[in-house]
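pasting for ref
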Amino acid sequence: MEKNLLYRKVNTRTWGVHDNSPGGDYRDQRHTKAERRNEASRGSMHGTHRHGLDYTPLFRFLLSRVGRRWDETLREAVSRLDRPDPVFWLVAQRESEKQDFVRTDESSYFSGLFVDEQGILAIVAPELTAANMQTFCRCCTHSFNGIPYGQGKD
């Protein structure tokens, strides 16, 4: 039995869908005088940022595996992904990378994770819940580990 992938495609072709790309459109930059002077600064139009993929299923999978062996969890996650990088958006690889929570989208946050000395996946700040999360803007509904909180959650 094959398991579901831990990511999904997001519609990026519909009008009004913003992909949070850094910078403006290329058409607004290509004929500026400053750019003509320094062609080396233009770089490739084919960046490394991948658009159209949502890793929320991966983040929920990782949260469901808290308290289990990390090596088994990592092996299963990587086998169900297109690339291993998104795993480490939530899971700190070094002590200095630990975060209480991680912002994964405009108003979506997930618990930061790490691997303890026994090789078990753990939450950095287990006392943190949606009820005690701070709202970063008043107009949006935020979510923490998939649970909505904030001004517009009604």
